[in-house]
Design brief:
The protein is mainly alpha-helical. The chain has a domain at 22-93 and 148-314 and 374-442: Amino acid/polyamine transporter I. The protein has 16 helices and no strands. The chain has helices at 22-33, 36-49, 53-77, 83-92, 94-127, 132-147, 150-179, 203-214, 223-227, 234-263, 279-286, 292-324, 342-361, 366-398, 412-430, 432-455. The model is unreliable at 1-14 and 465-469 (pLDDT under 50).
Length: 469
């Protein structure tokens, strides 16, 4: 079967709901990308590169912006609940759609397990109960939320993510006041801390190390193109949401880094294992914010649960799309009266809870292997988006399918993006702590491709290709 004989048809999406608005998609993208890593992991990049971590964020941000532009163009022309998995199938055949779809689903299940474990551990200490109790409560709660009409889910996620955004805006505002000495008892700080060890204390190797720490900070915004399939106007929603998500995430991350590096001595910034050690907590403590540790714990829990909720949605829609293509049991494509694939939602919830159990069980070597693939899978997905764009863009132009999202610079933008992403992979190979991410992704991908060619699912069921192909 070839995709070149006639224009491929997008996967059927009309059966799903259409209640998501642009503001829902924007907050969903923010909710997925702004997780606990911002509050606990920002210090890792700063420690590696000093204030020059800003360069790492800019480099990673430009690459991800290009990838999201390409994905936005594909999604605007051919909106599909399978997003990049659907485009991989259009470009390279069913084996690619099967592999990328299940790879993304597996990635989300592992991330959700880690997020729920972290949130349940914090909440368990609040109420002096075993962590599995709040984990079970949260899983049931989010199963119910995701089972109702998609507009209700979007509204819930909007306000859930809004809390995080409000906290970050408040942090940036307080930080600016502290920097300029505008709060009582504080004086103008200037660049005393910012340049105490120089702008680039560890040189370009430090910036390269920081790239590995910050490149994954933008992960999660690709969920916007999955959710756009259930929006009222997919083309408009993708255009508005992708642009606003990218610049807002850039503002929040860069702004937070600037505030932290101006206010805290370089030697005091490092990785944080809990809310008390977070550089955000240290900055807010300078402003004498009462109960700052408990406040930051609450923000971290909300961040984890918001990302968990958005990823339950994305994993269930990917599962729904895979079932439509015959790559998963057909029952997972069945919808309830609210046009929600409840069986796919339940499967994602069950597997997420199993992932939580796996992390508590922690069998020697297995959990580390599975979790180590998460970052590598994200890089691979971005590379696949670029390859799909290289293959499909001429087809969209030829068939006059281009929508409201269009980027210029073909073919150099995708080519340069691929080279940049491969450079990230090279950095990972030279870093002992990241090398296993590459090998684990290769193993997981090999297993999925082997499963496809052994089972050959979806033959004769695909909605991607027209019958003439």
């Amino acid at each position: 079967m070839s995709a070149n004989n006639s224009a491929p048809k997008p996967a059927t999406i009309t059966a799903l709901g259409s209640g998501l608005k642009t503001r829902h998609l924007t907050m969903m993208g923010l909710g997925s990308a702004i997780g606990a890593g911002l509050f606990l992991g920002t210090g890792v990049g700063i420690r590696a590169a000093g204030p020059a971590v800003i360069l790492a964020y800019l480099i990673a941000g430009i690459v991800v912006m290009a990838v999201m532009g390409m994905l936005g163009e594909l999604g605007s022309a051919r909106p599909a609940s399978g997003s990049f998995a659907t485009y991989a199938q259009m470009a390279f055949g069913p084996w690619a759609g099967f592999t990328i779809g299940w790879l993304f689903w597996f990635n989300l299940v592992m991330v959700m397990g880690a997020e729920m474990t972290g949130a349940a551990a914090i909440v368990g200490t609040w109420f002096n109960v075993d962590p599995w109790i709040p984990a079970l409560v949260f899983v049931v709660l989010f199963a119910i939320i995701n089972a109702f009409r998609v507009g209700g889910f979007g509204e819930f996620e909007f306000w859930f993510s809004f809390i995080k955004v409000a906290v970050i805006i408040g942090f940036l505002s307080i930080g600016a006041l502290l920097i300029f000495g505008l709060l009582p008892g504080h004086t103008f700080i200037g660049t005393e801390n910012f340049l105490s060890h120089g702008f680039m204390p560890n040189g370009w190797p430090g910036v390269a190390a920081a790239l590995l720490a910050v490149a994954f900070a933008f992960g999660g915004i690709e969920i916007v193109t999955i959710a756009a399939a259930e929006s009222e106007n997919p083309q408009h929603s993708i255009r508005s949401a992708t642009r606003s998500v990218i610049w807002r995430i850039g503002l929040f991350y860069l702004g937070s880094v600037l505030v932290i590096t101006f206010l805290l001595p370089y030697a005091a910034i490092d990785a944080a294992s809990n809310a008390a050690e977070s550089p955000f907590t240290q900055v807010l403590a300078m402003a004498n914010i009462p109960g700052v540790v408990r406040l930051m714990e609450l923000v971290i829990v909300v961040s984890l649960l918001s990302a968990f909720n958005a990823q339950i949605y994305a994993s269930s829609r990917m599962c729904f799309s895979l079932a439509q293509e015959g790559f998963a049991p057909g029952g997972l494509a069945k919808l309830n009266k609210s046009a929600v694939p409840t069986r796919a939602v339940v499967l994602s919830m069950v597997m997420a809870f199993a992932s939580v159990g796996l992390q508590w069980w922690n069998p020697t070597g297995l959990l580390d292997f599975l979790l180590s693939s998460v970052g590598g899978i994200l890089i691979l997905l971005w590379i696949v988006v670029c390859l799909c764009y290289l293959k499909l863009h001429p087809e969209l132009v030829r068939n006059k399918e281009l929508g409201s999202v269009q980027i210029s610079g073909y073919p150099w933008v995708p080519i340069i993006s691929i080279i940049s992403l491969l450079a990230f992979v090279a950095l990972m190979l030279f870093d002992p702590g990241s090398r296993t991410q590459v090998t684990s992704v290769i193993i997981v991908c090999t297993v999925l491709v082997a499963i496809y060619w052994l089972v050959r699912p979806g033959r004769g069921k695909s909605t991607i290709y027209s019958p003439q192909n």
